[in-house]
């Protein structure tokens, strides 16, 4: 099979079916504009500091970073999180290195997709760096794949990683997808819908893009995922409230994904996989923890695994740390 080069199309640059991949992009006027990557703040993930009040005679008060109430839903913070691929790359690598039980999600999703035997467009929504996109393209080489994400830098990496496959990447928001109505045979929304404050609206938009008989594979994790790491941060005293900070999976999690999909589609399949991670020592766990905006840590520790390792070692005995996560997959079908 000839595999055309992957190309980038913005919703504004293509309103028909792409000649190279057969992806039916939605007309520009109906699609969201590509996102502009945010400039990270000094913390790498926190919103800009808010000035504190001061009297005319007092010296300027030091500015304190105000963390967002829920950093995983705050739009500016989320843009900052995905403004470059590096944080996601470090985070994924730290988890991959520590995983002792559980199949990588991209392998599960590609196998579930292959079993659906789709004929036509596959849409990987919130594709990030393209890990799942690549697995889908390999598993179903005859299907064109549209990879959509709101982060231009992550899309650039997805494009380069899927070069040589029948993949086209495009900037777009999953609340207003740049895909035509009833165009996709299969859609994937893996580990992204939890960044929506209105996931039901995002799922309704995904339904719009599926053709009758089209299938959605959605994936998320449990709210209790990695809680041993929250407890570790709390025990260190670096953020005593760490265990009660909002979970990344608060809006879309293992306990409500089927209900959310059910509101838009007919649920056909639910699967919960237990993953176990064993970090050998504080150095290894800090490589993961430093990538999280969840904790209220001093800015010099966020995004700085070596500094975070030192701070943890000053407060806790160095030891292996085991943590778990439930990964949930739900398949929904558009009946008509
Ligand atoms: C944790 S990554 C998951 C990437 C990929 N699906 C995977 O499983 O490896 C979350 C992705 O969702 C994207 N995202 C967040 N909000 C979005 C939105 N409103 N529309 C489209 N993509 C969004 C981010 O840019 C990021 O690439």
TrEMBL record:
It comes from Bailinhaonella thermotolerans. The keyword Secreted does not apply. PANTHER family: CARBOXY-S-ADENOSYL-L-METHIONINE SYNTHASE (PTHR43861:SF2), TRANS-ACONITATE 2-METHYLTRANSFERASE-RELATED (PTHR43861). This is Class I SAM-dependent methyltransferase. It comes from the Bacteria. Residues 1-72 are annotated as: Disordered. Keywords: Methyltransferase, Transferase. One of its GO terms (molecular function) is methyltransferase activity. Residues 122-214 form the Methyltransferase domain. SUPFAM superfamilies: S-adenosyl-L-methionine-dependent methyltransferases. GO terms for biological process: methylation. Gene3D superfamilies: Vaccinia Virus protein VP39 (3.40.50.150). Residues 1-56 have a biased composition (Low complexity). InterPro entries: Methyltransf_25 (IPR041698), SAM-dependent_MTases_sf (IPR029063).
